[in-house]
Amino acid sequence: MNQIVLEILEYYKNNKREMPWRQTTDAYKIWLSEVVLQQTQVIQGTAYYYKFIENFPTVAHLANANEELVLKLRQGLGYYSRARNLHKAAKIIVSDYKGIFPKDYKLILKLPGIGEYTAAAICSFAFNQAYPTLDGNVFRLISRLYAVELPINEQKNRSFFMEILNNLILNTNPRLFNNAFMELGATVCKSQNPNCNICPVSIQCMALKEGKIKIIPIKTNKIKVRNRYLNFLHITYGNKFYITKRIQKDIWQNLYTLPLIESTQGIDIKSLILMLPEVIKNKKNTIDLKSEIKHLLTHQVIFAKFWEIKLEQLPDFESNNLIEVDINSYKNFAIPKLIDKYLLLL
Ligand code: SF4
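A: This is the predicted complex of the input protein with iron/sulfur cluster.
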């Protein structure tokens, strides 16, 4: 076995963190853990992992659940399409595979929301198959170890890194191999201030030797961030207010929000009044800007304004798909963090 692999496996054996999903070879639980852990801190992800396991102990429980509950359980983590895909994939596993997780990498890859990394994680951690898990931590570790100066966020370079890993994983225990490489990347070869003093492969590390730790891994700055101006209408009547389900293919699909009007730039109260639906354009209603919140998503910056509209009379909302709630009952719905943040300020 390659010396680098031996050193990393030995380090892992002596320094690994215990995590609940490392105690199991159940493909379903491993899949759940991967879905909640992506772009999430381990501590936060662990709480969500337990929540999902408690509510859906098997893939059949998840498949038979209401999608709204699945979204609700993910509330606060963002990336809600992952919850919708999780639910869809569970249904396919139950209908096409009799509730038994497929073992074939290509079949797993066909499930909604499962990409190359997650398929490899399931194949290796559940079935001990030799598929390297190339996540952000492993990209960084390999880049530095071999001083690779190819941008890690360009899909065309993925095969280069995979080739290195496919060679290294040969004749190893794939489950251990992947855990060990991911762990070293996450805990020692960290993005800022890697802990080279305790690194088991510092002697072999080319980036360290060449003084390139600060510039490797290379990333191109390709992500375009879009500004959006969302005006949320906090329409109140007495102690009630209204929420609506977002059905359009956009952020927060199938979650509940305050009704909203999107504008091309930040607007004042006069412009808002012009854009309001006729049903609430009653001069006796009072309108106030209650809060402004800047909310960051991966590809979008949301400039949110929350307008409170106090209704003098209750109009006919029937055709507007509005749901009447109060400050307690809205919590039964899956609500984006941004809206929750506003409502908690009240
Ligand atoms: Fe990363 Fe430092 Fe180890 Fe190189 S020596 S792999 S930079 S932690």
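The chain has a mean pLDDT of 93. The CA atoms of residues 327 and 346 lie 9 Å apart.
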